[in-house]
Structures are given as C-alpha cells and as structure tokens.
Design a protein that fits this description.
Blueprint: H1 3-25, E1 29-35, H2 41-50, H3 66-73, H4 94-104, E2 111-117, H5 120-128, H6 136-146, E3 151-156, H7 160-173, H8 192-216, E4 221-224, H9 225-230, H10 232-242, H11 264-280
Parallel strand pairs: 1-2, 1-3, 3-4
C-alpha cells in the first residue's frame, strides 16, 4: 500500500471515529475538566464520581494512564492491577477505548466527564485529527464535535510556587496521591531551578487554557484550588448546578479518599524559594 493511500485511509478512519464518538456523546451530558498538574483535579474527580451523578471523570487522555484504562475496557486488566501496560499510548485501539469509556464511565442519568490536562490536548489531536492543532478555535471545534458540545470546567491554582513545589516533590518520590498514610521511600531534595522551571511551565499552561477559551468564545466554570479545598461542598453544589445535573438539595459530601501529601517540608521549600527570588531580584 502506498504511503499516500495509507494516510488517506488513516484520515477516513479518524473521521469515522469522530462521527461515532459524536453520535454516542449526543446521548450523554458531557463535561471536560481542564487542568494542569497538582491543582486538585484528582480530588475533584473523586468527589464527582462518588456522588453517583456525574460519571467517573479521570485522566482518560494521559499517556501514562490511558493504556491501562484501555486494557480494563477491553477486559485485559482488573481494576486493581497497576502493572505496566502491554502497549504504549499510540498503540491503543482508540475506537474500542473511547466508545467503551462512554459506556463504562457514564452514570445512569447520562452524565460523563473527563479530566484533560493541558499536555493531553496534543494527544487528543494525534488520535482524532492530527492536522488541526494550531489554534484554540480548532481544538474547541474538535472537542465540541467528538464530545457533543461539552461543558467546560477550568480548574487552576492561584499559588504557582506551591503548585510547582508539590509537583517537584512528587516527581522525585513518585507519590502523586495516596489513600492512606503517605510513605516516601526517597527523601526529596530542594532544587530552586527545577521548581522555578515548573512555576513558569504552569503559568504558560494556564495561559494556553485561557487563550483557548478566549479564542473559542467559551466561558468555562472556573474553580480555584485554594477556594475549592476550603469549600468542597459549596464548590460541588455550584458545579452540579452549572452542569445542570439534578441532585438533592443537600448533596452528601463523600469523605475524600485521598490524603494530604503537603507538610512542613513544602512550607520550608516555599520560604527557601521566595528568599532566593528576593535575593535574585526577580
């Protein structure tokens, strides 16, 4: 088969997949949580899932987790199995995976959600339409097509320094979340340059989300991490109203399964970082 014929068949296959996704999404109430690392998105997804009303949002486009999710959808992996996947992200059967997610991760009321972190946007384009990934308008058009005009939730963190510290600590210890007492086998080390680089990365990713919404004329439901963690019940109630999901007047707030990882070490690093920035005159 010639390369040009193969590319045409690839485009036709992706076009058919987009159409199939749109048809299935049309029977659901879909929403996308737009986030970056360490903004509380895992906690928000857990709370939404535990209401039993909002689907089971998760990082379904993560190159780390998507292959595992795909194997569970295919019946090749149990929910408790967290061993390395047999195939990498680019070898996923996306038709079976994405359509299966709609069926497996929606609730009886027809709600379905997904946590999309900024680096995942590129993965969405690669799988569904690699020709269109240059502007916010094109990305929103693609998301709007395959998820049938989803609602957008923008979750961000005001304090980028604490966000970066949390991320750098987790990168070293490989502990990103925990449902029990936090145990770190490796003692993390402070690194100003690494933390500062993550501060700038998260600032840039927030700017990318903001530009995407502005170019696409979308007004997302905005949640700030700092307010969310202090007012979980109120945030959850307001979000369900925005999503137009019917719910009891008093929403039982599930007990968060995730345990706080931040401690005095994060605070000490924060002070060291701020002092270094003052010394450098930044």
């Amino acid at each position: 088969m010639s390369a040009s014929r193969g590319s045409v068949q690839g485009r036709l296959g992706r076009r058919a997949l987009r159409a199939a996704l749109a048809r299935r999404a049309g029977s659901l109430r879909t929403y996308l949580i737009c986030s970056t690392h360490r903004t509380g998105s895992t906690l928000l997804c857990q709370l939404l899932t535990d209401t039993g009303l909002c689907g089971a949002p998760d990082e379904y486009w993560s190159p780390r987790w998507a292959p595992r999710f795909a194997e569970r959808i295919a019946g090749e992996r149990t929910d408790s199995d967290d061993s390395p996947p047999a195939r990498p992200f680019h070898e996923i059967d996306f038709r079976r995976y994405l359509l299966g997610l709609f069926d497996a991760k929606s609730t009886p009321n027809g709600s379905w959600g997904c946590n999309v972190q900024w680096p995942h946007v590129r993965r969405i384009h690669e799988a569904l339409d690699p020709r269109k990934q240059s502007t916010g308008v094109q990305t929103l058009r693609l998301l709007g097509q395959v998820y049938d005009q989803p609602r957008y939730v923008w979750l961000r963190r005001r304090d980028k320094v604490r966000q970066a510290i949390s991320f750098w600590r987790s990168k070293q210890t490989k502990v990103f979340s925990s449902t029990g007492p936090v145990e770190e086998s490796l003692r993390p080390e402070f690194d100003y340059e690494k933390i500062d680089g993550f501060v700038r990365r998260f600032e840039e990713q927030d700017a990318c989300w903001q530009r995407l919404f502005r170019e696409g004329g979308v007004e997302p439901f905005s949640i700030e991490f700092e307010s969310f963690v202090e007012h979980k019940a109120e945030t959850l109630a307001a979000l369900l109203e925005y999503l137009e999901i019917e719910h009891p007047a008093e929403i039982p707030l599930p007990e968060p399964r995730l345990k706080k990882i931040s401690d005095g070490l994060n605070d000490a690093w924060y002070e060291r970082y701020r002092e270094r920035r003052r010394t450098d005159g930044d």
